[in-house]
Design goal:
- It is a single chain.
- Helix content is 57%, strand content 8%.
- With 341 residues, it is α/β, with parallel strands linked by helices.
- Helix 5 links the parallel strand 3 and strand 4.
- It is globular.
- The structure holds adenosine-5'-diphosphate and magnesium ion (MG).
- Magnesium ion binds next to helix 2.
- This is Chromosomal replication initiator protein DnaA.
- It is found in: Cytoplasm.
């Protein structure tokens, strides 16, 4: 299974209060796929907290116990892309049959289904088919099912069928254990006070924690220095998070079009279909609020329109945000993606 990454195992997944339920449910599922009430198993939590690691570990553990099982790991994003491709190539049946033949499906980041109604429909059918045949479904998401915006109610209700288990930010002790395990695996020794210092400084995500450590090691190697507490202190100061990256209009356009499954060229065209107009207006609104581009240039970028069209688009979007809850959720969701990218 090329989609499974062998490096993510239960062995190197550190257990803590923050992930205890998710980990033990995952382990139960791995020893009896489809045979527990945790179906689907939904693992949710913030960015960089170990959802992908745990989901992959479940897949790898199943293959270790039951090598004949067909296990597929797929990100929701990739699944959506495959669906669009299969529409284009007239291979929807193959696409559906492939997934329905699996014993275990692991789908990562299902919040990315938001706004993609046709892909959700297809997944709804695949889900039902697998669930009815007692095949195991494992999902990850950045929010619990009840807070997922832009997903169809019937799909959400199924996501709630099994067990939803959250992953929280690890406490200091667990963060230190994660760093130690990683150092040990990489064959690197570091003084305890350095590990404690780093774990204390970075307290929002495991991914950032690892990133800080990697950057510290790299800089020490480059400068040919031993790492002690003083060096760690001076170097971590430079580990600034790059949160003020410039956002481009190209990027906004791509994000919005992906979100609504609209071809990118359409936004710049004269087409007046509802979903195209909506994507175009939201793109203009985001460009106005998240770039320093003038209204004139925004209009020019989105198909040679003038600045009054941009003003009208922004006004329309603002009105809809006020009056239409679903629309508001879409825009907020896209804005969040814009900021975390
Ligand atoms: P998410 O999918 O929630 O964004 P990831 O699974 O990609 O997060 O985890 C980010 C990094 O942190 C990965 O390198 C992963 O191996 C590591 N990590 C997260 N949680 C743990 C844990 N409990 N034990 C060991 N490593 C962890
Ligand atoms: Mg992930």
């Amino acid at each position: 299974d090329p989609q499974l990454n062998q490096h993510y195992t239960f062995d190197n997944f550190i257990e803590g209060e923050c992930n205890r339920l998710a980990r033990s449910a995952g382990f139960a599922v791995a020893s009896k796929p489809g045979g527990t009430s945790f179906n689907p198993l939904m693992i949710y939590g913030g960015v960089g907290l170990g959802k992908t690691h745990l989901a992959q570990a479940i897949g790898n553990e199943i293959k270790r116990n039951l090598p004949d099982k067909l296990v597929i790991y797929v990100s929701c994003e990739k699944f959506c892309q495959q669906f669009v491709d299969s529409l284009k190539n007239n291979t929807i049946n193959d696409f559906v049959n492939f997934y329905q033949a699996m014993d275990v499906i692991i789908m990562d980041d299902v919040h990315n289904f938001a706004g993609k109604e046709r892909t959700q429909d297809i997944f709804f059918h695949i889900f039902n088919h697998l669930h009815q045949s007692s095949k195991q479904i494992i999902l990850t998401s950045d929010k619990p099912p009840k807070d997922l915006a832009g997903l169809e109610e019937r799909l959400l209700s199924r996501f709630k069928w099994g067990l939803s288990a959250d992953m929280q930010v690890p406490d200091l002790e667990t963060r230190m254990a994660i760093l130690k395990k990683k150092m040990y695996t990489d064959g690197i020794e570091l003084p305890d006070n350095v590990i404690e210092y780093v774990a204390n400084q970075i307290d929002n995500s495991v991914r950032e924690l690892e990133g800080a450590m990697v950057s510290l090691l790299a800089q020490a190697t480059l400068n040919k220095k031993e790492i002690d507490l003083n060096l760690a202190k001076s170097m971590l100061k430079n580990f600034i998070r790059n949160t003020h990256k410039e956002i481009s209009m190209d990027y906004i356009q791509k994000l919005v079009c992906d979100y609504f499954e609209v071809p990118v060229e359409m936004v710049k065209s004269k087409v007046r279909k509802r979903e195209i107009v909506q994507a175009r207006q939201i793109s203009m609104y985001l460009a106005k609020n998240h770039t320093k581009t003038s209204l004139k240039s925004i209009g020019a970028f989105f198909g040679g329109r003038d600045h009054s069209t941009v003003i009208y688009a922004c006004q329309t979007v603002e009105d809809l945000i006020e009056t239409d809850k679903k629309f508001k959720a879409y825009v907020q969701d896209i804005q969040k993606k814009l900021k975390t990218s």
